[in-house]
Structures are given as C-alpha cells and as structure tokens.
Amino acid sequence: MSERDEGLFAQISHSRTAAEVVQQIESLILDGVLRDGDRLPGERDMAQAFDVSRPILREALKELEARGLVVSHHGGGTYIADIIGQVFSKPITELISRHARATRDYLEYRRELEGLTAELAARRATDTDRALLSRIVDDMKQAHESGNAEDELAADVEFHNAIGEAAHNIILLHTMRACYRLLSEGIFFNRKAVFALHNARERLLEQHLAIHDAIVGGQADEAKKAAQSHIDFVMQAVDESVRADEWGRVAKLRLIRRDGNSSQGRGSRNNNQLKTNDKPEASS
C-alpha cells in the first residue's frame, strides 16, 4: 500500500462483514476523503488494512459498484466513480451552457454558498485544515509571482475546495465541488478571460488572502464578508469580460465593413476613371 493510502482504512474488529467494509468506504466518500477518480489500493492491501478475507472484500466492492460508487476496470484496478458530476445532469449542464443569463444566477447562488462556507470554515477549521489552506495560498502566490496562470487557476479551485472541506458540512462540500466542476469545465464563463482583465489577477489574489486570513484567524463574520466580496468582484469582472468580447467583435465587423467599403469605393473610382479615358475625343 502506498504511503498516501496508509491509515486510510481502519481494521474491522467485530463481525468482519462486507457491509462494514461498504460502510467505511461510503463514509470516506461522503466526507470527501476519497474523491472521484481516486484509485483504491489493490485487493491484498485493502484486505490486510480492513483485516478481512479477500472474498469479503470482493463482495463489498461488488456492492459499492452496484450502488454506483466505484467502477472496476478489468486488470486496471478499482476507482471512485464520478459521482460529483452527476449532481448536475448532462442535459441541465448543456442547457445552462447555452443561456448566458445562467452565469449571473450561478454566481448569485455561489455568493450565498461561499459566504456560508467561509463562515463555517472560520468557526470549524482544524489545525490541519488551516495548514492546508495556508499551503494552497503559498502555491497560489508562487504561481502568481512566476506568472503561471494555469497553476494559479488550479490553486484557486483547490483553495475553494479546501474551504468547503474546512466547513465540515458534507452537503455543502459536495454541492460546492459540483459547482467548481462546472466552473473548471468552462460551463459558465472563461476564467482565463477574467484573469486577462487589467489588475484582475492582483485583486483576486488579494481577495483570496483576505478570505484565508479571516478563516485562519477564526473571524467568521469577516470570512463571510470577504468571500461574498470576492464573488461580487467576479460578477463585475465577468460582465466586463463579456462587454470587452462584444466590443472586440463589433470593432472587427466595423473594420471589415470599412475595408470592404474602401475597396468598393476605390473600385468605383477606378471604373469611372476608365470610362472617362475611354470616351472619344471631341472633334476640334
């Protein structure tokens, strides 16, 4: 078993049934410890960790697969299923992506959730939660200073996910993860376009630092206010990005039209000149 998986599973000390294995793995998924796409250790290692026989473990994994919580690939291991993406079905995500007004509703919804999540995180975060938030913020600052927008965007999502974990509310945790999934897939708006706005990256970093400091300092009201102010800025930035795109589109159309008219005008003048030159000279 890898070092990453050490201590993940607890030995079953009672009846050692498949149901107990199922319950423990379900709890790890529910608490967000096991995420979609995570590969479970091999059968032998898991059986040893749970202190159960391999037939019992196989029975448990079969039950988890029947419940849609894990997927098994023949010869490729067992993985946690993509259950977060299913919070929003494919038809609704496709519908949302085709209607721009959904972006503002999404951000309005997130504003309230982010505020509540940050408030709870400030009240409930453990030392481990606070250390993780600080580590992510350090990564974010390093990416910002090096100009690595991709890493900074990744740290942004991980930061908000970590706040969701620090709130210690499993409904909020999975709801927020589903929201961030849609965001990372570009369903609502282009995050890179927002980053490209003047001073946007600097202001976003300042806002993330303010949220971090309030949560780590246990200041619940300040954490809520900082989180909601952050989303207010994102709303404004998205509007500005959309306007900038529209201005750019219109400007290009004007240029194409102007160039076309200029060419047409030059052509007309040339044709008129040719007609003038082709006229017979008047007799003297």
Automatic annotation (TrEMBL):
Q: Name one GO molecular function term.
A: DNA-binding transcription factor activity
Q: Which CDD domains match?
A: WHTH_GntR
DNA repair among the record's keywords? no
Region: Disordered; residue ranges are: 258-284
Write down the InterPro entries for this protein, in alphabetical order: GntR_C, TF_FadR/GntR_C, Tscrpt_reg_HTH_GntR, WH-like_DNA-bd_sf, WH_DNA-bd_sf
Q: Show where the HTH gntR-type domain sits.
A: 15-83
Compositional bias (Low complexity): 261-273
Query: Function of this protein?
Result: Transcriptional repressor for the pyruvate dehydrogenase complex genes aceEF and lpd.
Protein's UniProt name: Pyruvate dehydrogenase complex repressor
What organism does the UniProt record list as the source?
Ciceribacter sichuanensis
